[in-house]
Model the fold of this input.
Amino acid sequence: MNHNIPLSPRPLDHLSRNRRLVLTVSQLREHGVTASDLAERCRPGGPWQQLLPQVYLLHAGPPTSGERLQAALLYAEGSEGSQGEVMVTGLAALALHRFSSVPPLIGLDRIDLLVPRQRRLRASGEVMIHRAHVLPDPDEVAGVPCAPVPRALADAVAELDDPETVRRLLTEAVRGGHCEATAVVRELSQARLLSRPHVVEAVDTLLAEGRAIAEGRLYDMVRCFGLPDPVWHVDLRLPGGPHLGGVDAYWPEHAVAVEIDGRAPRQEEDALWSEYARKREHLERLGITVVYITPKKLRESLEQQAAVVRTALMASSDRSPAAYVVVLPA
Done:
């Protein structure tokens, strides 16, 4: 018997029938494809082609969007056993998240990947590499590990210099319910992008957009869950005394206030944060219960936030009477 007969190509046919059309050189070797076989099949006009270093496409013609993604991930995973430590980011991730302001994946000329900072990996072909000290937990989108929207936005914005494009991306992130404005600003700050004038301008628009959406959800919370009507957007003052601060909703008979906690985590706002805390402490010393609700909680757990406010209103009868304050339109 001749023991030198080459391995049957049947396993590769089997993989092709199961749509495994993107393989690494090591995977091909496991199926009996030698270096000379690979060179022959990838010759000009041949049936296969090399997409990236060590990554091959088992058909001629342009790769599909899915094949481009698979090839990029296989390239980044490489020989270091880094599965689970690579995710799509930037515009490619936003395309997978179905951002209308981003071209479909087939129309993008590159795929951005996020990897740990210690990985020895270089950009190649259409693959661009971004690094993180600590990788975020990926979102699984259509079976593809993607960076969360705030991180994907930061990686995309880092490569963009068109103000209108940046504004559209940031606004869609909040208006489309993908994430909260503060989460985006946090990532932009960590990426040191807030020194760019066109980014700062877009962030101002973003925060205004996020604030308006959060206020609308607060109105819905009061209406949909049967809370008593408050007075909206008022300033509180001591009679003949200082201004105590503005709140988004106030129930005078219960001395309960609600404020949307939409602070943006920007370094230059440290003084504002301190002022924010002082206002809260002052109101609570006067016997006014302050309920702070983040835009994220208004988006994700409206019923739970309504229960928190209702509990504060019901508990008011058990507290000592609050100091009298003057309520003025904001």
